[in-house]
Amino acid sequence: MSDPTVALQQAMTDRLRAILGEEIGVYDFVSEAATLPYATVGVISAVPIDEMCWDRSEVSVQIDLWDDEQTSRKVKERAAVVRDAFHEFDGLVVTGFAVDRMRVDGVFLSREAQTLLNRARIVVAVEAQPN
């Protein structure tokens, strides 16, 4: 199976940076020096779509938006922007791969109990194959 996860994570990170702007950092690993609000792209899984063709994969990518505002309004607004930017988007360029379909499988909102940070978890499913 050709693995699109590295190239896909980079392409999605680049798109997130363009969408969210410079005031919101986008990370794979968040250092202690990072300031809120920020986004992470990192929890990824890939499975073959067709057992006869191992090169075509469905990749699930988790995007997390984090904010320390007292209300959850801003993280909800950003989640809506990200959802709209990725759902059924057909213009994502992934080096070495063709994206057949991209859809948002869900947006999950929470306030983390230990840190009290507002969080939006957005799960994006991408069907891709080598080009």
Q: Can you characterise this structure?
A:
The protein starts with a helix and ends with a strand. The protein is elongated, with a radius of gyration of 15 Å. The chain contains two helices and five strands. Strands 1-2-3-5-4 form a five-stranded mixed β-sheet. The chain has one domain (5-130): STM4215-like, CATH 3.30.2000. It has 131 residues and is an alpha+beta fold. Strand 2 and strand 3 (53-67) form a beta hairpin.
Gap between N and C termini: 13 Å
* Spatial sequence of strands, sheet with the most strands: 1-2-3-5-4
Which CATH class applies here? Alpha Beta
Mean pLDDT: 93
Low-confidence stretches: none
Number of separate helices: 2
Relative strand content: over 45%
Biggest sheet overview: 5 strands, mixed
Whole-number count of domains? 1
Radius of gyration: 15 Å
CATH topology: STM4215-like
Kindly name the structural category: alpha+beta
- What helical percentage do the residues reach? 10-25%
Helix-strand string = HEEEHEE
The coarse silhouette is elongated
**CATH architectural type:** 2-Layer Sandwich
The number of distinct β-strands equals: 5
List keywords for this structure.
STM4215-like, 23% helix, Gp17-like, single chain, alpha+beta
Write the layout of secondary structure elements.
Blueprint: H1 5-20, E1 25-27, E2 38-50, E3 53-67, H2 73-86, E4 97-111, E5 118-130
Parallel strand pairs: 1-2
Antiparallel strand pairs: 2-3, 3-5, 4-5
